[in-house]
Specification:
The protein has 379 residues and is α/β, with parallel strands linked by helices. It has one domain: Rossmann fold. Helix content is 37%, strand content 13%. Strands 3-2-4-1-7-9-8 form a 7-stranded mixed beta sheet. A two-stranded antiparallel sheet has the order 5-6. The longest helix has 17 residues. The protein is globular and about 65 Å long.
Length: 379
């Protein structure tokens, strides 16, 4: 889909961009590229399956716009012959329950909540639970027509903070997820959209292991879920990054920064911050650099095309909204279990003691807007 703009757009861009001929040209080229290759996020994701079997969608968690995109994608995936969505947000041991849930005559929301609670008692978010219901709706619509069933595959290993020696004492969670993906999807010759946190979705890019207290690069993580799958399947795999703030080069506790020094946001301002999906590798976006982020550490010549293959921009980060707490996710039947879970996480005992079924959603809600409010002066 091609977007046409007045010819004065290029002149406008050159006049408002920061000083620096190279940066001006890069951003000008990026604008022209979008004009010629404009696709909605949904169109973009589906288009990647023409040449790839496994598309990784990496997010910053708890952003409503991200999950809403996936919910929109589920019926589009089905229409285009992609019948599997693999997710980080579910315990693989409960796969038999998921397979049952999304093929029932009537959707069982209570079962869906139990499946989500089993994976993470703190993940009581309506939109993530809606993933199961949207998959059910697709199957319900097509049942009895001889059509394939849509499947949601839970990838995660069970996380138990109360386990002696630590939850991950005997397991690498990323390698575990890769094994599940191979077993449940790849070995069956099926295509899949893989939806996870951004760090799990890295494919070609290797995440820095950086000791900020000593200002020293220790090495690189090479076994993220996406790394493992990419190392095996190479060009059958494609990674898409969902626009969000980046970790600062000063450390995890420092205020986050805009990706590639804010270059993408300055380009998208000229398009009224409209949602769009676009290629990074082999395009002007691929050569954008970062001087203030953790992701460039250990990469003297860091460019965006080393980090991801494609990109989805859904609006300004400061306009993102949080996911919604699910009603009755915490109940009288599971609150004692939740409190024990929180104790093992070393949560303040006063907070745990104050927790009730009635106030659980208020106490456990994490407002993603608080993560990004410092970026308001960057636009």
């Amino acid at each position: 889909m091609k977007i046409l703009f007045y010819t004065s757009l290029t002149i406008l861009l050159i006049s408002i961009l920061p000083a620096g001929c190279k940066e001006k040209k890069q951003k000008n080229d990026a604008v022209l590229y979008l004009e010629e290759h404009w696709q909605s996020p949904e169109e973009y994701v589906i288009s990647k399956f023409k040449d790839h079997d496994y598309v990784f969608l990496g997010e910053y968690h708890r952003i409503k716009q991200n999950v809403d995109l996936v919910l929109k994608l589920i019926p589009e995936l089905y229409k285009n012959g992609i019948y599997t969505l693999a997710i980080e947000f579910g315990d693989a041991k409960d796969q038999y329950l998921v397979d049952s849930l999304i093929t029932l005559p009537e959707f069982d929301r209570e079962l869906a909540k139990k499946i989500m609670y089993s994976n993470d008692p703190l993940w009581g978010y309506k939109e993530y639970i809606d993933i199961y219901q949207t998959a059910w709706a697709v199957n319900n619509k097509n049942s009895g027509k001889g059509e394939p069933l849509f499947r949601v595959v839970n990838l995660s290993a069970h996380y138990d903070p109360c386990k002696k020696g630590g939850a991950w004492k005997d397991i690498d969670p990323d390698k575990y997820m890769a094994e599940v993906l191979f077993k449940e999807v790849i070995s069956k010759g099926e295509k899949a959209l893989v939806y996870s946190g951004n760090h799990h979705a890295f494919t070609r890019y290797h995440q820095p292991l950086y000791n900020f207290s000593k200002d020293t690069l220790v090495g690189f993580t090479t076994t993220r879920l996406g790394n493992v799958i990419y190392d095996s399947l190479k060009n059958r795999v494609f990674n898409i990054y969902l626009h969000a703030a980046w970790v600062s080069a000063e450390g995890w506790d420092d205020p986050s920064v805009l990706p590639v020094n804010g270059a993408i946001d300055s380009v998208m301002a000229l398009f009224s911050y409209r949602p769009v999906g676009f290629d990074v590798v082999g395009t002007p976006f691929g050569k954008l650099t970062s001087s203030n982020s953790y992701y460039a550490l250990g990469y003297p010549d860091f460019t965006l095309d080393k980090y991801c293959d494609g990109y989805i921009y859904q609006g300004r980060i400061i306009d993102y909204t949080p996911v919604t707490m699910e009603t009755d996710f915490i109940t009288k039947d599971n609150i004692a279990d939740l409190k024990e879970y929180l104790k093992c996480l070393k949560v303040d005992e006063k907070l745990i003691d104050s927790l009730t079924v009635q106030n659980a959603n208020d106490i456990l809600f994490e407002d993603i807007r608080e993560h990004f409010k410092h970026l308001r002066d960057k636009y």
